[in-house]
Amino acid sequence: MSEDLNKTAQSQQAASATPAAKPAAPAAAKPAAARPATPAAPAKPAVNEMKPKQVEAAKLHDELKRLHDQEGMDFLLSLTGVDREDDGLAVVYQLENTTTLKQAILECVVTDRENPLVPSAADLWNIACTYEREVYDFYGIKFTGHPDMRRLFMREDWVGYPFRKDDETEKNNPLRMTNEPLSDTTTEYVLTEDGKVEAVEHAIFQEDDYVINIGPQHPSTHGVLHFRVALEGERIRKIDPVLGYIHRGVEKISEKMTYPQTLALTDRLDYLGAMQNRHALCMCIEQAMGVEVSDRVQVIRTIMDELQRIDSHILFFSCLCQDLGATTAFLYGFRDREKILDIFEETCGGRLILNYNTIGGVMADIHPNFVKRVKEFIPYMRKNIQEYHDIFTGNVIFQNRSKGVGVLSKEQVISFGCTGGTGRASGWHNDLRKLRPYAAYDRVQFNEVTRTEGDSFARYMIRLDEILESLHIIEQLIDNIPEGNFREKMKPIIKLPVGQFYSEVEGSRGRFGVYIESKGDKSPYRLHYRSTGLPLVAVMDTACKDNMIADLITIGGTVDYVVPDIDR
Amino acid sequence: MKRAKIKSIPYEEFKDNETYEKLVEELNAGGANVIVKKLDDLIDWGRSNSLWPLTFATSCCGIEFMAVCAARYDIARFGFEVTRNSPRQADVILVCGTITTKMAPVLRCLYDQMADPKYVVAIGGCSISGGPFNKSYHVLNGVDKIIPVDVYVPGCPPRPESFLYGMMQLQRIVKVENFFGTTNRKEKDPYKVEAEIKEEHIYNQEEQA
Ligand code: SF4
């Protein structure tokens, strides 16, 4: 465990050792520096505390460009907006170099609440386009030079910016039962020479585009997702995803909850990664408080995470088959999934929403049957994977529909930040369990499955192979679950020290991160989840371009997004 | 009094029989022709055993719905397995998952597109009251604010058994309905009420302008 912590600490040091984080940047003299009073320095700084470098809005783009071009920061991990009330609105950038794993964290604060302007980074990272739209939607920060400054989640006729602390959201937005307006144009805010801002209109689709709507109620979109698809014959020209049909405002309602209460919502984000999501949040809180959980907890959490991953991948397989018309395979998948759910149910009491991890450990010790059941499950699942290959993988129709369809290059997946199986199918080594091992991953042997084709078939195979790897991990741990507490004794009221904290885990479909900004209260000042699904939807336009409309289903199925996790 | 019989579950074991009896009473208030009633029974028997649900899942509860459709719980035993993707062909809409304010008009539209007689089952805390998210600015606190609901199935998510139990409750309702000559829907359509309020609002605004 201590070794594990050290590693994280090292990576943090590595991050702060980058030039980006050089202390006392001149910009700090600006009001940007008006951070909450100096934190009462804890005895030992939290391993996951972030020390962002302050950058002025005017210099932000140059700085980002320098980091992108010269320091090779090709992966925009996360972009978070924060409302600091009197101190202005902040945007936090987390960048990573995918080869050296160096990180850089920047923060830009603008004090103008009426018309906050920040230069856009959409020209550097593709995913910035989507993240910035999210920040605009929540905080009203306009990104100058962004080609498509529309709301991302809310309706276009929404009034106000819901994440601002002073927004009267409920008052301004009664339930609207009229059909949603969807405009055909979008706005770009251009900064002119003399410092003025001009709004320029762009058309979203071309004049002669034939646009059809897929969703929000469509069985193959895996939830309520809406694509506006421009077609040329049967070929896709452009996809414009319309999100927010399941935007539940999780991050905002968390701000009014105590830390233990916020845990409940993580399971419901990406319900196929319930264990991992909650693990991430618990880990973030624990690390920020300096709590060390026992070895037993680390191992239990690891096993549970892997079981959850298998569960998720089986569901992926079943749904993909179902969408492509293979109903039998669907039934096979669900048959095996029930076995995992049985194991979960015995220990956690729930089938889908598990509520198992908690701050300082897990809710209850494992069930006496747990080890036995898991051990029975491992050979059973190994055998059945073969069956999956027999009934579906070799199928000619499936092969034709997936090989060479929706190809994504490595550069593309990195630029879009598509972590998880989708990234690994294109040859990007992004498995956090290998890169920065947490929990008990440093004591197990396993392979990071990667492929290079980047097509739908590769994405499919990756997930089936990962099931085997997960089984292998569980096999190594299940016999030596160490003795110890299953939960540390925590204070009845949990408060985090002042500061910004970030922790992440490898979720079922990518890197799931938790950003907490704390002012020392018993509820988070800002809680942001790095969604694993948002980049996956953002990449759909690129992946589907020039493919047939029917392939949209295959591609959407294989990139494997879960919609409530996208919308949060 | 007429009571629907559900195989393997005795009448007494159903919860909330009072509401059910009240409904039956209401339906039979006018009395009925013997022959028509017999025909009704026949048709209701057929209908109740082949309710076609619309696949409508917005979030977590939808995954449990898939589990109910799969081999272990096998919804096909009761004749509900023909899930339809088009509302035009569906008899019942199972609202599985959170309904946000952005989704609300879409749900209403789907409901309006379904052909009568149609039923709504609200599944899970979210569709009953907003569930864990009921303090959110973007979540509808209960689908019964926009569409009339026949059966509520609580849980987060409900266990597959509860799904099936809820569907059987619906079967009981279907089995006592009159098919010929009368309309059955007794619940107030919340949307109609809402629409009136809105019209008034628009009217007021126009007047002010
Ligand atoms: S009731 Fe619970 S399980 Fe169902 S959609 Fe709501 S949060 Fe998810």
Using brief descriptors, characterize the structure shown.
heterodimer, A: 568 residues, alpha+beta, Cytochrome-c3 Hydrogenase, chain B, 4-stranded mixed β-sheet, 17% strand, globular, disordered N terminus, B: 209 residues, alpha/beta, Rossmann fold, 4-stranded parallel β-sheet, 7 helices, 4 strands, 7% strand, binds iron/sulfur cluster
Task: Provide a descriptive summary of the structure in words.
- The complex is a heterodimer of chains A (568) and B (209).
- By secondary structure, chain A is of the alpha+beta class.
- Chain A has one domain (1-166, 191-202, 247-559): Cytochrome-c3 Hydrogenase, chain B.
- Helix content of chain A is 39%, strand content 17%.
- Chain A contains 19 helices and 16 strands.
- Chain A has helices at 2-17, 57-69, 128-139, 169-172, 250-254, 259-266, 274-289, 295-323, 327-348, 370-393, 396-402, 410-416, 420-425, 432-435, 456-478, 533-538, 540-544, 551-559, 563-567, and strands at residues 53-54, 75-83, 89-96, 103-110, 117-119, 142-144, 185-191, 197-203, 210-214, 226-232, 235-242, 357-358, 361-362, 499-507, 510-518, 526-530.
- In chain A, the strands form six sheets. In chain A, strands 1-4-3-2 form a four-stranded mixed sheet. A three-stranded antiparallel sheet of chain A has the order 9-10-11.
- In chain A, β15 and β16 (526-530) form a beta hairpin.
- The radius of gyration of chain A is 23 Å and the shape is globular.
- The two termini of chain A are 32 Å apart.
- Mean pLDDT of chain A is 83; it is low at 1-42.
- By secondary structure, chain B is an alpha/beta fold.
- Chain B has a single domain (15-208), classed as Rossmann fold (3-Layer(aba) Sandwich).
- Chain B has seven helices and four strands.
- Chain B has a four-stranded parallel sheet with strand order 1-2-3-4.
- The longest helix of chain B has 19 residues, at 190-208.
- Chain B is globular, with a radius of gyration of 18 Å.
- The mean pLDDT of chain B is 80.
- Iron/sulfur cluster binds next to α3 and α5 of chain B.
